[in-house]
Amino acid sequence: MLIVGIAGGTGSGKTTVVKKVLDKLPKDEVAILSQDAYYKDNSHLPLEERQKMNFDHPTALEFDLLVKHLKQLKKGKDIEQPQYSYITCSRLSQTTLVKPTDVIIVEGILILTNKELRDLFDIKVFVYADADDRLIRVIRRDIIQRGRTVENVLDRYNDTVKPMHEQFIEPSKKYADLIVPEGGNNKVAIDILVSIIEKNLKSSYA
User: Fold this and answer.
1) CA distance linking residue 126 with residue 156, whole number of Å
2) Which domain holds residue 189?
3) Is the pLDDT at 12 greater than 90, yes or no?
4) Residue 90 CB neighbours (<10 A)
5) In the chain, N or C terminus with fewer CB closer than 10 Å?
6) Residue 60: inside a domain, yes or no?
7) Backbone Cα Rg of the chain
């Protein structure tokens, strides 16, 4: 099993990179674990308080469960991945069944900040994008997908997203084996990543 960690700032284009990598690989050989599924359940808090939470700080995540699930997959065991709603800012009651595959891609802004998780990755990738480009993508995403206002998005960006990026996410770039500038628009970097994965898949079958 090959485990690939793909990190990068909010709005850097990580999801696009993952999708383009998936498009080039056999579907039944790849599974995705999203960091976002492992945000701690805060359903016991009032919604207004939940919506003010700092989702860009490592303590917001249940890294222990993500590490546990990766280790179970490596042992050939199925897992039940949590589902998280950004609308209610809490975990859903249903889970997603994930079966062991030849390649596991773990995607998220903070995955390279945790050493225990980082040590499980065979390939560590950091997707880089200019701060202005990331902000534009964040505004579009949060308004369309998460029902937030422009003012709310900008306040959150200034209060948590930007400072947390500078404190935790950007420094984690030093752990990357491959840096992908311009996200999903960087065809060369994506092709390099795919070729590395394909080479490992071929060697596992040899």
Assistant:
1) 23
2) 2-201
3) no
4) 18
5) C
6) yes
7) 17
Is 158 among the domain residues?
A: yes
Strands 2-8, 103-107: pairing kind: parallel
pTM for this predicted structure: 0.88
Tally of domains in the chain = 1
Within a domain: residue 140?
Answer: yes
For the stretch 79-132, pLDDT in tens is 999 999 877 888 898 999 999 999 999 999 999 999 999 999 999 999 998 877
Q: φ, ψ for residue 83 (rounded to 5)?
A: -120, 135
Q: What is the pLDDT of residue 102?
A: 92
Mean pLDDT throughout 144-168?
80
How far apart are alpha carbons 157 and 52 in whole angstroms? Answer: 12
Domain presence at residue 206: no
Please report, for the domain that includes residue 185, its CATH number.
Answer: 3.40.50.300
